[in-house]
Amino acid sequence: MADLPADVPSDIDAQVAAGIPATPTVVRGLINSVRMVLRDYSQLNRLTAGVEHSDKSIGLALLRTVSAWNDALPPVGVYTVSNFPYKGLLIDGALGYLLQSLWFLAERNELRYTDGQVSVSVSDRKQLQGAFTRMIAEFKQQMRTQKLSENLRGAMTGSGVGSDYALINENSWIDGLDG
After folding, report:
1. 3-state secondary structure of 60
2. CA 137 to chain centre
3. Taking the complete model, does pTM exceed 0.85, yes or no?
4. Using CA of residue 20, residue 21, residue 24, residue 25, what is the dihedral sign?
């Protein structure tokens, strides 16, 4: 798989593709974990030379995962790659985004050939689409559950995202309306 464009910083350990501050050892460990789950090692890739995903690609997938968390509602916990507290969720999200990247590549390079009664399609895009769709959907569901949990935990300590219902319950003036 080709590397990212030249304008993406090459020092992935220090900048995680887009300049997000990160601890190099944490990022390296996450990249290794993602690679381990994918079994993306040159000695195991019989049909490709080397690894399928570069460290930059994996770093960008990690960054996209953290960005998805930070952009999702409710706005609890803003993190970077190096301080994201849910490593399993981070790895699962990165896997989904890496599979989505492979799907984009398969879409772009799909080849269909027909000769008489024989049709050949050189693409696994439908399998990739199903896989990345499931992975990202699972990631987003886990993310919603975790964010809800954080928000409820914060509600007990006063650091959660508030609701208009709190105004009704906290104002004593409403008690006098019944007469």
Report:
1. helix
2. 10
3. no
4. negative
Residue count (the chain)? 179
Long-range contacts of 18-25 (CB under 8 A, 24+ apart): 18/60, 18/63, 20/63, 20/66, 20/80, 20/81, 21/80, 21/82, 22/80, 22/81, 22/82, 23/82
pLDDT of residue 143: 95
Distance CA 136, CA 95 (A): 8
Instruction: Calculate Rg over the CA atoms of the chain.
Output: 22
Dihedral of CA atoms 63, 98, 2, 121 in degrees, nearest 10, equals: -160
Burial category of 132 from C-beta neighbours within 10 Å (exposed 0-12, middle 13-18, buried 19 and up): buried
Q: Which residue's structure tokens are 């886990």?
A: 142
Could you give phi then psi for residue 84, rounded to 5 degrees? -65, 125
**Are the CB atoms for 106 and 124 separated by under 8 Å?**
yes
The span from the CA of 113 to the CA of 121, in Å, is 6
Average pLDDT over residues 66-94: 92
Grouping H, G, I as helix, E, B as strand and the rest as coil, residue 122 is: strand
The per-residue pLDDT of the chain, averaged, comes to 78
Instruction: Give, as one character, the DSSP assignment of residue 49.
Output: S
